[in-house]
Design brief:
Layout (H helix, E strand, L loop, with lengths): L1 E7 L5 E10 L4 E19 L3 H7 L5 H6 L12 E3 L4 E21 L4 H17 L1 H6 L3 E10 L2 E5 L4
């Protein structure tokens, strides 16, 4: 497997997106956190063997699996890089700029109880952050990073 160091070309161009789900009988709620970072560093892994290619398919989104995007090195001038299209690892982020949260109905029909649950989650997140979600039965669903404005890619020499 080839490994590359990836950093954004521009500052304040890394967005981290975290989602949590709360499954109820006939409903599913989703909470989404977006964090903007001043900088970041990532490891990009490009599989080379058939075994690694099959393994990595489990870690990328459907579009990437179908088109084989995860097997290619992204262009440095890429306008927006979605890390869920590749096998990426976050090495470090720093310089947090701001944080936004949203809570909504992901599946099912809205009713007064659901509206109240969404309002409670919004209030809980505002006062306690993601601790509220962990303490109230929400499950982490996924996380992703987006890098806008181009990237710098450097091959890592494996020892």
């Amino acid at each position: 497997m080839k490994t590359f160091n990836v950093i954004p070309k521009d500052s304040d161009s890394v967005t981290e997106i975290n989602t949590w789900l709360l499954e109820l009988d006939e409903h599913k709620l989703i909470a989404t956190q977006e964090l903007n970072w001043g900088s970041g560093e990532f490891a990009l892994h490009i599989p080379e063997t058939p075994e690694k290619i099959e393994d990595i398919k489990n870690y990328v989104n459907r579009n990437s699996r179908e088109k084989g995007i995860f097997r290619e090195i992204p262009e440095e001038h890429i306008a927006k890089l979605d890390t869920n299209e590749y096998f990426f690892e976050m090495v470090a982020t720093s310089g947090g700029a701001h944080e936004d949260w949203s809570v909504g109905l992901h599946e099912g029909e809205s009713n007064d109880d659901i509206v109240n649950m969404i309002a409670q989650a919004e209030e809980g997140i505002e006062s306690e952050g993601d601790e509220f979600l962990y303490e109230n039965g929400w499950e982490e669903d996924c996380y992703d990073y987006k890098i806008e404005g181009g990237i710098k890619i450097t091959p890592l020499v494996e020892l």
